[in-house]
Design goal:
Layout lengths: L2 H17 L4 E8 L4 H16 L7 E8 L5 H13 L2 E5 L6 H12 L3 E3 L12 E3 L4 H14 L4 E6 L2 H7 L1 H4 L4 E6 L7 H9 L4 E5 L5 H10 L8 E4 L10 H4 L4 E6 L6 H16 L13 H20 L20 H9 L5 E3 L2 E5 L5 E2 L2 E8 L2 E9 L3 E4 L18 E6 L7 E2 L12 E2 L1 H13 L2 E6 L8 E2 L4 E2 L1 H7 L5 E3 L6 H6 E3 L4 E3 L1 E6 L2 E3 L12 H24 L4 E2 L10 E4 L3 H12 L11 H30 L2 E3 L5 H5 L5 E3 L5 H8 L3 H12 L1 H4 L4 H10 L2 E6 H10 L3 E4 L6 E3 L2 E3 L5 H13 L2 H12 L20 H37 L3 H14 L4 E3 L37
Parallel strand pairs: 1-2, 1-3, 3-4, 4-5, 6-7, 6-8, 8-9, 9-10, 17-20, 17-23, 31-32
Antiparallel strand pairs: 10-14, 11-12, 12-13, 14-15, 15-16, 18-19, 21-22, 23-35, 24-35, 25-34, 26-32, 26-33, 27-30, 28-29, 29-36
The structure holds glutamic acid.
Main location: membrane
GO molecular function: ligand-gated monoatomic ion channel activity; signaling receptor activity
Pfam families: ANF_receptor, Lig_chan, Lig_chan-Glu_bd
């Protein structure tokens, strides 16, 4: 074709086009004040069309108007104003009763009305096109999800009446047990969530607006309804736009539905385009493909659909004239335009998928993504389409990850029992809720662990105070251990003892406290001193040793006196050469001398020789120490009233039958007696079982009351005894610990969290935090430290042989030394005498020994030898050898004198 023919044809076509639709086509948009983003998308979508001449040859002009959701008058005014400006279609409003009004006005004027929010009506008006999937279509999807998840019973947690309308068949289903619960209108949903937890509701369909959803999820986590036991189906199509990280590690199965795929090219290019338009205005409202909402995407698709329908309408006969609400005129092309929009043949690929309508005007061919919250965020696990229904790639929720799994943001249900000071009710003048209700060592320990490991926790109370024991006949566990095994709780903490039996049923962390069984009994009663309390300062052993050394020293002194030549004296000092010598150390005198010094009195007897003086000195030293010790200890005995208990240890308690004894029912203490191989303990267990109604208690507190009011001894764990005796001075611990064990946090068997919890407990121990906590809860909080001064054993104890043994050793050493000295003195004297009298040394020595060996009498005749004057000699000593024996004073004229 030649250029000369082409040019007039082009001009003709151009004129024809210009003569069809006016150059600028106005479209009106009605928005509420909260719909800023939808309004922006409305404008940007229009500009996108204008920038792409392939879609429409004309320019679109967006006229956004703000309306109030319940003000019909102003809405109808606005619609009339828009119609007066000659709009080709009206978009919105998104919600509110006014949308019906706009629809009927558009119907009257034959102006297409485009809606993007859900609408329950079963018949679409002629001039209405709604891009939102019909709620009944979505309800069908939720039904299929509930079936795929195998929920026989579930709870529908809804916000208001419209939710129930929307969910339709889901709430009316008869083949499943459905519980309906409404969220709190004022935003505090904790009560309803708590009720759900208590009644064990695990499968939840949550239907609420996006404004409410984050708060509901947060509160669900706070009350412990966000654990691995719960599964949620969240109906909001905008689930992906909120931060789900806090719930992503807790193991809760959260399923949602997505209409906009942020990874699709069409979404990414639209968002990029909007960003570009934003940048041209010098703004950035932060829309990304990740946070684009369904209402924004539908608005974009609605404008696109409208523009494509307009382009099909674009013919010379078409005009758009302003319409007057007062007159009955209408737009002649409205019907065609709306039919082009609803035409099932045309397919538009929008941000929300293929946009097609059925004969009734409902959106059809919908394809949605099924999303599930996993440890790495929301993941697509399947699809749902109106044609093929649900197609889950993985129908079973993912298995919990393995050992290294973080506890971050997990919520543990922690069960505790009331036992001071591990778990106690917080005292408050106002009613407390949830975790605030409790305080104590165990509660603080869980809190510290949660800070270290980043988990959340919710405390629950074991109302019957049963910690858990195995019924050997039925094989059933009771109490908190049962709750862990039945997965009604994740952790258990109180003064829960780690036992081999329990360790088979559940796991325990490293012990956070060590202890042993002891006896709680009334504090020792004060006793008035006994008649023979003067004997108390020394033990019987010491008294016996004292008596022995007294006798020993006296006898030694007597013997030494006889051996030692210097103790033989002239009885008549004025006679220069006496016939015989006298010794003061007779046996009686020796006894008298030693007792005299022991009693601190002295006597007229005084030793003369070095050796006897040595004996006397060491004895005086001994008596000095012993008497001082006695006096000091006697003072203590007389000033301090001694306190006693009727028994000193467990065996004395077992061997009597006046004082009753018992322990906590089903506790590890009573089981210690049951499992012990010691027949004495078994005997005690048999006694407790025989009298169990009388002697076994449900709580430690009951045991304490029995101790105070009856003649009763209570077997209790030492840490608990320590706590009580810090506050109640009427009771005390008796005897030593019977065993040694520890308290741990119980967790269900083979839990992947045990190691992390144990490591954290160890870290708390190593940093000294546990010791500080213990000190505070035991000695400071709730009246601790009351019995510090009065408690403890102030009783003086008698000195035993270990206390005074050293003095005895010194005494014995001194005596041995003086024996040598005595021998030395004897030999020296014999030697000198033998030389002086010119007799044999041995002869003289034998004569001395013979005399000593006689051990008789306190006088000693002076021996005379043959070479001496016989006249002077006294008669020969009886038994003495007259041949060798010459009566002679060998003790010269100057014997020792004191
Ligand atoms: N700690 C014990 C237990 O875990 C309870 C108290 C007791 O038996 O003395 O069973």
């Amino acid at each position: 074709m030649s250029v000369s023919i082409m040019a007039p044809l082009l001009i003709f076509l151009l004129l024809a086009a210009v003569a069809g639709l006016p150059g600028t086509i106005k479209i009106g948009g009605l928005f509420h004040s909260t719909e800023t983003l939808e309004e922006l998308v409305f404008q940007y979508a229009t500009q996108t069309i204008n920038n792409d001449s392939m879609i429409l040859h004309k320019r679109l002009m967006a006229i956004p108007e703000h309306v109030k959701s319940h003000d019909s008058l102003s809405v109808s005014d606005t619609v009339c104003r828009l119609l007066g400006q000659g709009v080709a279609g009206i978009f919105g409003p998104q919600a509110g009763s006014t949308s019906a009004l706009v629809q009927s006005m558009c119907d009257t004027m034959d102006i297409p009305h485009v809606e993007t929010s859900w609408d329950m009506k079963q018949r679409r008006q002629d001039f209405l096109v709604n891009l939102h999937p019909h709620p009944s279509t979505l309800a069908r999807l939720y039904m299929e999800l509930v079936s795929a998840w195998g929920w026989e019973k579930f709870t529908v947690l809804y916000e208001d009446g419209s939710s129930l309308v929307r969910l339709g068949n889901l709430v009316k289903t008869l083949d499943r047990q459905v519980t309906l619960r409404q969220l709190d209108a004022h935003g505090n949903h904790r009560q309803v969530l708590r009720d759900m937890r208590h009644s064990g509701e695990r499968n939840i369909v949550l239907d609420c607006s996006m404004g409410t959803l984050p708060e509901v999820l947060k509160q669900a986590q706070q009350v412990g309804l966000m654990t691995s036991d719960q599964s949620y189906v969240i109906t909001s199509l905008d689930l992906h736009t909120i931060n789900l990280e806090p719930y992503q590690y807790g193991g809760t199965n959260i399923t949602g539905v997505r209409m906009v795929d942020p990874n699709s090219k069409i979404v990414q290019s639209a968002v990029k385009n909007w960003g570009y338009l934003e940048a041209r205005k010098g703004r950035n409202i932060g829309i990304s493909s990740e946070n684009i909402t369904v209402s924004m995407a539908l608005m974009h698709d609605a404008v696109q659909l409208f523009a494509r329908a307009l382009s099909r309408l674009d013919s010379p006969a078409v005009d758009i004239k302003p319409l007057d609400c007062e007159s009955q005129n209408n737009w002649g092309h409205g019907t065609s335009l709306i039919n082009f929009m609803k035409d099932g043949q045309s397919t538009l690929h929008g941000l929300t998928g293929v946009i097609q309508f059925d004969n009734e005007g409902f959106r059809t061919n919908i394809m949605l993504d099924i999303m599930e919250l996993s440890y790495s965020g929301l993941e697509r696990v399947g699809t749902w389409s109106t044609k093929d229904g649900l197609n889950i790639i993985r129908a079973v929720p993912p298995a919990p990850p393995h050992h290294s799994e973080s506890l971050q943001n997990r919520t543990f249900r922690v069960i505790t029992a009331l036992s001071d000071p591990y778990g106690m009710r917080r005292q408050s003048s106002v009613p407390l809720k949830d975790n605030d209700r409790f305080e104590g060592f165990g509660i603080e320990l869980i809190h510290e662990l949660s800070l270290m490991l980043g988990f959340n926790y919710i405390f629950d109370l074991q109302l019957d105070n049963a910690y858990g024991s195995l019924n050997k006949k039925t094989g059933q566990w009771t109490g908190m251990i049962k709750k862990l095994r039945d997965e009604e709780a994740d952790l258990a903490i109180t003064d829960l003892t780690i036992t081999s039996e329990r360790e088979e049923a559940v796991d325990f962390t490293t012990p956070f406290m060590t202890l042993g069984i002891a006896i709680l009994y009334k504090s020792p009663q004060k006793e008035s001193p006994s008649l023979f309390s003067f004997m108390a300062p020394f033990t019987t052993g010491v008294w016996f040793c004292m008596f022995s050394v007294y006798m020993g020293v006296s006898i030694l002194l007597w013997i030494m006196g006889r051996i030692c030549p210097y103790e033989w004296n002239n009885p008549y000092p004025c006679i220069e050469e006496p016939e015989e010598l006298e010794n003061q150390f007779t046996l009686q005198n020796s006894l008298w001398f030693t007792i005299g010094s022991l009693m601190q009195q002295g006597s007229e007897i005084a030793p003369i020789a070095v050796s006897t003086r040595m004996v006397a000195s060491i004895w005086w030293f001994f008596t000095l120490i012993m008497v001082s010790s006695y006096t000091a200890n006697l003072a203590a005995f007389l000033t301090v009233e001694t306190s006693t208990t009727p028994f000193k240890n467990v065996w004395e308690l077992a061997n009597q039958n006046v004082i009753k004894y018992g322990a906590k029912k089903g506790g590890s203490t009573v089981n210690f007696f049951r499992d012990s191989s010691d027949s004495r303990y078994q005997h005690m267990y048999a006694y407790m079982m025989r009298n169990q109604d009388e002697v076994l208690t449900s709580t430690n507190d009951e045991g304490l009351q029995k101790v105070k009011t009856q003649n009763y001894a209570y077997f209790m764990e030492s840490t608990s005894i320590q706590y009580i005796t810090e506050r109640d001075c009427e009771v005390a611990q008796v005897g030593d610990l019977l065993d040694s064990k520890g308290y741990g946090i119980a967790i269900k068997k083979n839990s992947i969290y045990r190691n992390q919890l144990s490591t954290a407990v160890l870290k708390l121990q190593e940093s000294g935090k546990l010791a500080k906590m213990k000190n505070r809860w035991w000695k400071e909080e709730r009246g601790g430290g009351k019995c510090v001064d009065t408690g403890g054993s102030g009783n003086p104890s008698p000195l035993n042989i270990q206390n005074v043994g050293g003095v005895f050793v010194v005494l014995v050493a001194g005596l041995v030394l003086s024996c040598f000295m005595a021998l030395f003195e004897l030999l020296r004297n014999v030697y000198e005498t033998a030389r002086e009298k010119k007799v044999l040394f041995l002869q003289e020595l034998m004569a001395e020994f013979r005399f000593i060996a006689r051990c008789h009498g306190s006088t000693k005749p002076i021996r005379k030898y043959d070479n001496q004057d016989k006249e002077d000699s006294p008669p020969a000593e009886e038994g003495a050898d007259p041949q060798n024996f010459v009566p002679l004073s060998i003790y010269g004229p100057t014997p020792y004198r004191h």
